[in-house]
Amino acid sequence: MYSEEQKQYFSRNLLDWYHTHKRDLPWRRSKNPYYIWISEVMLQQTRVDTVIPYFHRFIDQFPTVEALATAPEENVLKAWEGLGYYSRARNLQTAVREVHERYGGIVPQTKEEISSLKGVGPYTSGAVLSIAYNKPEPAVDGNVMRVLSRYFLIEEDIMKPSTRTVMEKLARELILEGTASDFNQALMELGAMVCTPRSPHCLTCPVMAFCSGREAGMEEALPIKKKAKPPRPELRAVALIEGTGEHEGKWLIRQRPQEGLLARMWELPHVAWGSEGWLSDEDNGSLLRQNLADQEQILIQPDEWFMDTEHIFSHIVWKMKVYRAKLGDANRPGHGGEWIPFHYRWVGPEELHQYAFPNVFLRIMKEWQERSVD
């Protein structure tokens, strides 16, 4: 289907280009499969510039398989805070624990063993096996599919599993003997730096001469990708409950359930709103108070609207209205002390580092601090 001349030209010129132009990235300074694994998980859905400081902090805190395997989950989530897609961190720790217990802390070197680990799909297994162990395994991600679609003029929808299978077979054929580590990184690098999603830099591309997509004038039309559905909006009313007395300067936070979206992370109390839309701020506050009382046995006295914000997931977007509030008298028993559910805590700014939050709630509390100073 594709000429050997075209494939050989691609592989040899790509490797020559990479050896001269590759970026100095921290995970490229080591062949440690554990470090490479961490970097590849972090780089899913996240830009390189964002990942670099997280990678440094993460391996400083968890320098070995054993360190991550034995760490409390809350410490791992806190180190991941801000990267999003927190299931990645949980799956990574679960898989690392299996490596620690079953493989003596050595990341497996076979496709079958590494693919059996939690959260390790075809791309991650191929990346770790090829980059760390120089195994001739393909590592096909979005960058790679874009490059191959353009160079070989592949006009199939890259969202189809059958297209990915074709790409993986082709990528495997392109790996010259003994070059898997550099080749897969070179392929990723070309997609990130030259063969970019928009306005590809064709004139500086090391494999332009045999690029079928460019010859056909389709370099910007490829790859073919069916558009994903936009995230579904959900309305959420948030209670920014401010402490008084001994809790002055603190907020009431709660821990999410053990399973599901953002499992076991911490947040400001909030409730899902109906599909009919927002009401007036006064009515929103009243319904927020009623829902928290019914669902959580937390009685509040809503004060005023504070801010609007949103939190975007891959499949939903929370549209959030935040209301300042105080804890109601009903949560202050007359016989002394204060009653709140076991999964709630009072926390001040100096204690936030002890809890893992989705970024949106940190933004709300930071905004409160900044306005208080003003």
UniProtKB/TrEMBL annotation:
The organism's place on the tree of life at top rank: Bacteria
HhH-GPD domain: residues covered: 42-193
Biological process, per Gene Ontology: base-excision repair; mismatch repair
Free-text cofactor note: Binds 1 [4Fe-4S] cluster.
Cofactor(s), names only, from the UniProt record: [4Fe-4S] cluster
Reactions listed under catalytic activity: Hydrolyzes free adenine bases from 7,8-dihydro-8-oxoguanine:adenine mismatched double-stranded DNA, leaving an apurinic site
Gene3D superfamilies tied to this protein: Helix-hairpin-Helix base-excision DNA repair enzymes (C-terminal) (1.10.1670.10), Hypothetical protein, domain 2 (1.10.340.30), Nucleoside Triphosphate Pyrophosphohydrolase (3.90.79.10)
A UniProt-annotated Pfam family: HHH
CDD domains: ENDO3c, NUDIX_DNA_Glycosylase_C-MutY
Enzyme Commission (EC) number: 3.2.2.31
Keywords (A to Z) from UniProt: 4Fe-4S, DNA damage, DNA repair, DNA-binding, Glycosidase, Hydrolase, Iron, Iron-sulfur, Metal-binding
GO molecular function, a single term: 4 iron, 4 sulfur cluster binding
Function as written in the Swiss-Prot or TrEMBL entry: Base excision repair (BER) glycosylase that initiates repair of A:oxoG to C:G by removing the inappropriately paired adenine base from the DNA backbone, generating an abasic site product. 8-oxoguanine (oxoG) is a genotoxic DNA lesion resulting from oxidation of guanine; this residue is misread by replicative DNA polymerases, that insert adenine instead of cytosine opposite the oxidized damaged base. Shows a powerful dicrimination of A versus C, since it does not cleave cytosine in oxoG:C pairs.
Record family assignment: Belongs to the Nth/MutY family.
Name of the protein: Adenine DNA glycosylase
Taxonomic lineage of the native organism: Bacteria, Bacillati, Bacillota, Bacilli, Bacillales
